[in-house]
Structure formats: structure tokens, C-alpha cells
Amino acid sequence: MKRCHLFLVVFMLLSLSFLMELMAQAPYTIQLKSRKFLPPVDQQTAFEAIRQQGISPEATLSGSYHVLLQFYEIPDELQKNRLKATGIVLHDYIPHRAFSASIAPTVTPNDLVALGVRFVGLFQPTDKLSPELLEGYPQTRSKSPDRLAVYVLTYPDIPISAAVSILIRKFDCEILSSSEQFHLISLILLKNQLNELASLE
């Protein structure tokens, strides 16, 4: 049975003081909102996980897989062009030397090695939630005690209309607004559906 997969990210900006603290850490320590970890040199395991979970590129709504990539060195424009020609598009920077990225199904572990990728991994559900949501339920515009108003940020290669359709089909939610320009959806959903929302791939 096919599953629909959609990467959804709830985000917030890091403060300047937090960024300064991150700069003093180990050069390959990855700092997400939910966790900090030093990944091993590994360009293979994520591909195995994608196969085991049965994630098809068509089910991601973009024809690509969405992953976390870490490089030995931050790519310059020439390197980014090489990545793009191989089927890899970088999105948001993540300390240190890492990016969220879309990769075509034709990309192989050997391609990543040749392009200077140190680590490729999949995001965990908690990686997609803001610190406020991880710590509890902040006050929102929802007037119902069992519902929560949140913003959802989608990857740029996912059509916002397709993302909205998935949300309406899978959740008891109310879409407040959506923006193709900013890849942003505002919605109200049941609090007990938040983890399921973050688990969409």
C-alpha cells in the first residue's frame, strides 16, 4: 500500500548569540533545533533507509528525496552548480557545513562521495518542530483547547496546492492561508495530530 510522503518543517530564526555559540563547536557537529550530534562519515545508510521505508520519489510530491547533507567544506558556487547538474539542490544551511537538500532518485552514494559529501541522513519528526512546540503547546489563535494553530514550511520544490491537498486529506484541519511564494501554510489541527504531521516525509 502506497503512503503519501511530504516533508514539512516548522521553523524559527536562530538568535545571534546562539549562532556565536555554535561557531565555537566542533566543525562537523550538526546543530538542529531538536538535537545536536556528530554524524559519522556515511553516504550509504540513508539510501538503505529510503528503500526500507518504501519511500518513492513520486510520493514526495516533487520527484526528489529530501535529506540532510553535510559536506567536508561548504560548497562554493562552482560546487553548487556541479551538485545541481548531478540532481542535488541545496536549500537551508544548517550548522555546521550541512544543508537540507533535494536529491534526484538517480543520485548514488558514489556521486555524493565524488561531490565532497561527508554525511547524508533523513530528518526525524522532532527535527521539523520549533523549540516552542517541542517544549509544549504555546498559545495560538485556536479557540478550542484541543486544537493548535501552526505554520508549516514546505520545500521549494513541493507545489503548495499539492501540500494543502495532502493536509486536508490526512488531517482534521482548517487551512487558514497558504503562500506559494514563501512555501508557507497556516493551519489549525488537533493537538494529538502534531506528531503525525511532523512524521510526514
Plain-language structure description:
- By secondary structure, this protein is an alpha+beta fold.
- The chain folds into two domains: about 10-125, no CATH class; about 130-200, no CATH class.
- Helices cover about 25% and strands about 25% of the residues.
- The strands form three sheets. The protein has a four-stranded antiparallel sheet. It has a four-stranded antiparallel sheet with strand order 5-6-4-7. The protein has a two-stranded antiparallel sheet with strand order 2-3.
- It is globular and about 50 Å long.
What is the residue-averaged pLDDT? 86
Q: What is the number of independent domains?
A: 2
Oligomeric nature of the chains: single chain
Q: How far do the termini sit from each other?
A: 16 Å
Strand order of the largest sheet: 1-8-10-9
Percent strand equals 25-35%
Largest sheet properties:
4 strands, antiparallel
* Unreliable stretches: 10-16
State the shape. globular
**How many H/I helical runs?**
7
SSE series? EHEEHEHEEHEHEHEEH
Percentage of residues assigned to helices: 25-40%
Structural class: alpha+beta
Number of strands: 10
Q: Which key terms come to mind for this protein?
A:
201 residues, alpha+beta, 2 domains, 4-stranded antiparallel beta sheet, 7 helices, 10 strands, 27% helix, globular
Strand-helix topology:
Elements: E1 8-9, H1 16-23, E2 30-31, E3 36-37, H2 45-52, E4 65-71, H3 77-86, E5 88-94, E6 98-103, H4 109-114, E7 117-121, H5 131-135, E8 147-154, H6 160-170, E9 173-179, E10 184-190, H7 194-199
Antiparallel strand pairs: 1-8, 2-3, 4-6, 4-7, 5-6, 8-10, 9-10
